[in-house]
Amino acid sequence: MDNKDFIKDFPILNSELNGKKLVYLDSAATTQKPMQVINAIEEYYKNYNANPHRGAYELSILATKVYEDAREKVKNFIDAESSEEIIFTKNATEGFNLLGYSYGMSFIQEGDEIVISIAEHHSNLLPWQRVAKAKGAILKYMYTDENGELSLEEIESKITDKTKIVSITHVSNAIGTINPVKTIIDYAHSKNAVVIVDGAQSVPHMKVSVRELDADFLVFSGHKLLAPMGIGVVYGKRNLLEIMEPYTLGGDMVEYVYEQEYTYDDIPCKFEAGTQNVEGAVGLAAAMDYLNDVGMEVIEEIEGNLVSYALERLNAIPYVKLFGPSDVKKRTGVISFEIEGVHPHDVASALDTYGVSIRAGNHCAQPFMRYMGISATCRASFYFYNTKEDIDILIEAIKETYNMFSKWRD
Ligand code: PMP
Fold first, then answer.
1. Which domain of life is it from (predicted)?
2. SS3 63
3. What is the radius of gyration, based on Cα positions, of the chain?
4. What ipTM, to 2 d.p.?
5. Which of 29, 78, 171, 265 has CA atoms 20 to 30 A from the CA of 92?
């Protein structure tokens, strides 16, 4: 499979920045968008724009249809049983806050345990700190080993009969580890805990079936899978969503409103108060169509090859330190590294002068960085539109950056 077939669909990847070919290696932060997604949004505004679920007129009915068709597409993409189990949010962060409020605040009692991993993104951490504090519950961490992996021993020792919620990232945005979520879900279920899967870094990169995993909830953001920013998804099992309180209150989520009280609508509308991001949903549906056309297996294969090649080339450089599993089967295209003697922020700025966009920092995972004894890493992250040539440019830029900083040190 030649990635060049895909690159032509992404205008930004064919552009130059400061006279250099753009080498975009920050897809874990957000992905670039193909013309198919951009066109779908334009088509929506040209032909279907109206406030859905509101009017009896034709255009509003059409807007409702495209919005609900998008929900159906998401349902198929993650293999949910019903589109009513799909809630649109602003992003993954809003999804975790929704679950913290609507599930955590209602079903967590004093002394209960909420279990997360030390490698969580802040968005799957802060909402649980808030629930634990408000309810007198205990927030417990599963710690990773030196490769950034969670052992079965650690999982089984932290998830206990007191555990009510396990919220775990499928793939670490900091170091790319693929967590054994199926094992965690099965074990947590044997203790009657519900499991929330953070799919922000997995759903864009691999086939994720909520039914195969038996996940209770799955959360992800559209912008990390070719869709626009401002649209995210919470999947929840019907029986759980039905017993949860709504998160935001207002128009469109209610049935009857009286002076002192209200009754709310059925799922999924009860979780979607106010005018929704129809443009985002349309873009998300187009993005999922695009990914389905490429094929998630093809995406996994391309990324697996890129990761193997990048690790091989980075490992050959003595002053580069890599984080995360060395086994490519246990990781995705998120590669965190350090260059001896050069601060990650300086590395990122220097690489930028070669046209290479990478991320430097704590990757919104401060407790994890502290646990690993570092303050920041450089992070190069790949998607199926990247090429071996991008990695070659990255490697050359790393070498030149190291040499440049060495000269200043001498
Ligand atoms: N979880 C993970 C694993 C992530 O990588 C991110 C984004 N970096 C988030 C959650 C939060 O996503 P968003 O900023 O789109 O809400």
1. Bacteria
2. helix
3. 22
4. 0.99
5. 265
